[in-house]
Amino acid sequence: MPPSAAYRPDPRFASLGAEFADAVRPAAFPSQILRFRNQRAAGEVGLETLTEAEWLAHFAAFQPLPDNQRTPLAMRYHGHQFRVYNPDLGDGRGFLFAQVRDRRGRLLDLATKGSGQTPWSRDGDGRLTLKGGVREVLAAAMLEALGVPTSRAFSLVETGEALTRGDEPSPTRSAVLTRLSWSHIRFGTFQRHAAQERPDLVAELLNHVIQTYYPDLTGANDPAAALLGATARRSAQLTAAWMAAGFVHGVLNTDNMNITGESFDYGPYRFLPRNDPNFVAAYFDHSGLYSFGRQPEAVLWNLTQLAGVLTTVTETEPLVAALNGFGPAYREALAAAMVRRLGLKPSGGDADVELANAAFRALAEGGAPLRWEPFFFDWFCGREERALAGPRAPHYDGEAFRAFRALLAARESDRPERLSAAWFARGEPEELLYDEIEAIWAAIADQDDWAPFDTKLAAIEAARSAWGFDPV
Question: Is residue 25 within 8 Å of residue 32, measured between CB atoms?
Fold first, then answer.
C-alpha cells in the first residue's frame, strides 16, 4: 500500500549539485531479512503503512520512495580524525536515500550505512557487519529514551554476505542500516570546500543550511557567525546530554559531528558503568582524546575547525565571539540536563549549576560500587525515602552525598506521577553496558536467537515511556 497521508517528500540536498555528492548505485544483496523496523519513527514520516515487501523494496533494494530523491547520493566531505586532517573521506559505505518532513514539519534525512561501495570507499567493501547494525539500533534507542538529541535507527536488514573484519571474529554476518536524522551535513562537509579553496561553495552550503535548518537566521547581518553560534549552542546541548546520560561517543572527529547538533554514527560507543572521567570507548583511542571527561573539549575543538573554515566567508572577530558562547551554553545545558535526569523542576541559573556539581561529586564519592544509571534511578524526582529504601542506600551517606541530599530537599519534583509507572517499581534500572550488548550479540551469532535483542528494545521502550523525557 502507499505511504500514509502524513508522508511529505521534500528532497533538498540534491539541488546543491555535483560538487557536494556523487550519484551511486546500491549494492545488490543476496538476501534480505528484516531484523528491525522502527514503526514509531515510520509513523512520524508517513511510512508506517508500508507492507514488509514494500519496506524491503525501499530499505534493502533502495527503490526510490514516491516523489523523492531519484538517485542515492554519496555525500562528499573531509575531516579531522583524531585531530589529523584527512582529505580522503566521504560516504564510503552509505548514501543519502531520501528526505521527508515529519509531523512537526522538520526536514529529515533517510540515510544508509552498509549499502555498498561508493567513490569514497577507498579499499573498503562498503558493507556493515550485522553486529555493528545491532549495536547502533541499541545505542540510538537508549539515547532517545534518555532524551539525547540523536539519529534513530529506522531499519536493519540482514543481507546474507560473509564479511571479514580485523576487529570481529570472521567471517561475520552483514547488514544494511537506514537511519533517520535531522541532517547529515557535517562540519567536514564545510571543511572539504575550504580545503579546495572554494569559498563560493562554502557560501553556497552556508546559505543552504540556513534556509533549510535555521530559517530564523535568514537576514542575519553576518550569516556565517550566526550559523556558528547556533551550531555551537546545539552542540553544547548535545554534549551536555551525553554527559548526563553517561555516554561516550568514542570517535568525535569532525566528520562525525553535524550542523544540527545531533549524535549519529555509533561505532565503538560505551555507556559508563560508573563515574569515570577517563573512561574510553574506542580501543584505539590510546591517548584518551575522546574519553568521557574530555568530550566537551573535543566538541569545542571541532567547532573551532568549523570556525576556521568560515573565515573564508566572513571576518574572524564575530566567529571568535560565537565560539566563546560555547562554554556558557554548555554549563547551562549541563545543569539543565542533570536536573532533567533527576526528575526535578528547573530553577535556572546558579541553583541548577550547584545541584549538578553536587550530583557529580556524589557520584565520584560513591566510587566503584555505585553505578551510573542506578544513581539516577534511585533519586528520580528527588524522593529521598525511595533512594534510602533501596539496595544502594549504604552508598548514599558520605559527605558529598549529604551535601547533595540537602540541596535536593529544597527542590520540587517535575511530574512526580511518573514514579507510578510499573517500571519504577523494579529494583534495577535499564542499562546498556558492554557485557550485555556482547551477550545479545552472542545469542544472535551462536543460535540466531533474536529474543534477547527484541526483549532489550522492549525494555528500553518501557524506560522511555516511564522517564517521559522530551527531546532536547
Answer: no
For residue 293, the 8-state DSSP code is G
Residue 425 makes CB contacts below 8 A (sequence gap 6+) with none
DSSP state of 344: B
Give residues with Cβ within 8 angstroms of 210, minimum separation 6. 217, 218, 220, 223, 226, 227
Neighbours of 218 (CB within 10 A): 11
Q: Are 234 and 326 in contact (CB under 8 A)?
A: no
Tell me, what's the pLDDT at 471? 66
pLDDT classification of 167: cutoffs 50, 70, 90 = confident
| pLDDT, tens only, 384-408 | 999 999 899 999 989 999 999 999 9
Query: What's the predicted TM-score (pTM) here?
Result: 0.96
DSSP reduced 3-state for 74 = strand
Distance, CA of 438 to CA of 223 (rounded, Å): 46
And the C-alpha cell for 106?
522538520
Mean pLDDT of the chain: 96
Q: Is the dihedral of CA 309, 314, 316, 318 positive or negative?
A: negative
- Which sequence positions are flagged as catalytic? 255
Return the closest-CA partner of residue 341 out of 350, 352, 351: 352
Q: What are phi and psi of 112, to 5 degrees?
A: -115, 165
